[in-house]
Design a protein that fits this description.
With about 400 residues, the protein is α/β, with parallel strands linked by helices. It has 2 domains: about 5-55 and about 305-400, Aspartate Aminotransferase, domain 1, CATH 3.90.1150; about 70-300, Aspartate Aminotransferase, domain 2, CATH 3.40.640.10. About 40% of the residues lie in helices and about 20% in strands. The chain is built from 15 helices and 17 strands. The chain has helices at about 5-10, 45-50, 55-65, 80-90, 105-125, 140-145, 170-180, 200-215, 235-240, 265-270, 285-300, 300-305, 305-325, 350-360, 380-400, and strands at about 25-30, 30-35, 40, 95-100, 130-135, 165, 185-190, 190, 200, 220, 245-250, 260-265, 330-335, 335-340, 360-365, 365, 370-375. Strands 4-12-11-10-7-5-6 form a 7-stranded mixed sheet, with helices on both faces. It has a 4-stranded mixed sheet with strand order 1-2-3-15. The protein starts with 6 loop residues before the first helix and ends with a helix. The relative contact order is 0.16. Bound molecules: pyridoxal-5'-phosphate (PLP). The site of pyridoxal-5'-phosphate has 15 residues, from helix 5.
């Protein structure tokens, strides 16, 4: 019997989260067990993080090997795992230079600072405006939360950093009207995650690319959630066929070990001169050896080509469930980042579905009050998909029947 209980959360921890009643203690593949040995299927993936499931042998092996040799140096020294990870990320993408940090918020902070500094170096301080989008999510530091487009997350934290404009997503005319010589960057999630699983159109991303080129502004893709194989391409920019100047990656990059990477060109990177930015832990050997192992597994045809058939199997199942219990209006997202948006009559009830799924032994996520979000492992077995769909059907039936 464990002496650690869920009540201790309220007793000892800050109340900014509202964790589930159960405490998971062990995971393997797409399955997780709680303190009472009850088994759950994990379609939440630690919020689109554990892209190779729990305890993948290549990833665990990398961590254990590195733990036995060298954990930490700081950036007074470089280290072999960081250099190796930077090299493989450059070889697989548009990038020529990589900056490492420990989370999505931190690499976005670096990206936004770099965009400002790059514009400053070429044009002076007037060119500082960042254009971002309503409902976007870029992290919780004061700068990243301000570039994010959800006012509830900045309320009460002012004064906020200035020079940030928010526009509706996928509105090419609004973007054309807003980009000016003062714009230093356009920042966008190719697929908005927290904001409700909304994909950018290819035309919109292409227009953003063109407008940035015309105004000497940088195009920044936040791929913290939609990158690293989620779409079936290594990064979403490759899926959409539009190349940014800066790309940020985290979440699935470490499959649960905290790490983030900012990718960019040599020309843009040149503005991060010695001393302009940094992090004590960023690029530490443990994180980088784990990420290199993750990268090596995800960036293979076996994993990337497995995303589309898994999506099809899941979407077919969702449509079957909705045929019996018609609560949902549409399936959104790309690859294995799936948003199931409630119909108008059921708006606001995504969390009820999440709770009912938990009762049935299935982890799912929400993306706002109206969207059930699924972010399973990219290598989830067919049998686990089928069982997850059975559990989800019982959960949806329970919410449907509660009326
Ligand atoms: C989760 C997320 C972040 C923030 O990442 P943290 O690791 O929580 O700081 C930033 N951008 C997007 C798109 C995300 O989904």
């Amino acid at each position: 019997m464990s002496t650690v209980t869920r009540e201790m959360y309220d007793q000892f921890m800050t109340p900014n989260y509202s964790p589930a009643k159960i405490i998971p203690v062990r995971g393997e593949g797409s399955r997780v067990w709680d303190q009472d040995e009850r088994c759950y299927i994990d379609f939440a993936g630690g919020i689109a993080v554990t892209a190779l499931g729990h305890g993948h042998p290549a990833v665990v092996g990398a961590l254990k090997r590195q733990a036995d040799s060298l954990w930490h140096l700081s950036n007074v020294f470089t280290n072999e795992p960081a250099l190796e990870l930077a090299r493989i990320m450059c070889e697989a993408t548009f990038a020529e230079r990589v900056y490492f940090a420990n989370s999505g918020g931190e690499v976005n902070e670096a990206a936004f600072k770099l965009a400002r500094r790059f514009a400053y170096d070429r044009h002076g301080g007037e060119k500082h405006e960042i254009i971002a989008f309503n409902d976007a999510f870029h992290g919780r530091t004061l700068f990243t939360v301000s570039v994010g487009g959800q006012p509830k997350y900045t309320e009460g934290f002012g004064p906020l950093p200035g020079g940030i404009t928010h526009l509706p997503l996928n509105d090419i005319e609004a973007l054309r009207a807003a980009v000016s010589k003062q714009t230093c960057a356009v920042v966008v999630e190719p697929i908005q995650g927290e904001g409700g699983i909304r994909s950018c159109t290819r035309e919109f991303l292409q227009a953003a690319r063109t407008l940035c080129d015309e105004h000497d502004a940088l195009l920044v893709f936040d791929e913290v959630q939609c990158g690293m194989g989620r779409t079936g391409s290594l990064f979403a920019y490759q899926h959409f066929g539009v190349t940014p100047d800066i790309l940020t990656s985290a979440k699935a990059l470490g499959c649960g070990f905290p790490v983030g990477a900012m990718l960019t060109t040599a020309q843009v990177a040149a503005s991060l001169k010695v001393g302009t930015h940094g992090s004590t832990y960023g690029g530490n050997p443990l994180a980088c050896s784990v990420a290199a192992a993750v990268f090596g597994v995800i960036n293979t045809p076996e994993v990337l080509d497995g995303v589309a058939p898994r999506r099809r199997r899941i979407v077919d199942g969702l449509e079957r469930i909705n045929g019996k219990f018609p609560m949902f209006a549409e399936v959104r997202g790309e690859g294995l980042l799936i948003g199931w948006a409630l119909a108008d009559d059921y708006r606001g009830r995504a969390r009820e579905v999440l709770n009912a799924a938990l009762d049935e032994g299935l982890f799912v996520l929400v993306a706002g009050p109206d969207v059930v979000r699924l972010a399973p492992s990219l290598i989830v077995p067919e049998a686990d998909i089928d069982e997850a769909l059975e559990r989800l059907e019982r959960a949806v039936a329970a919410v449907y029947g509660a009326d």
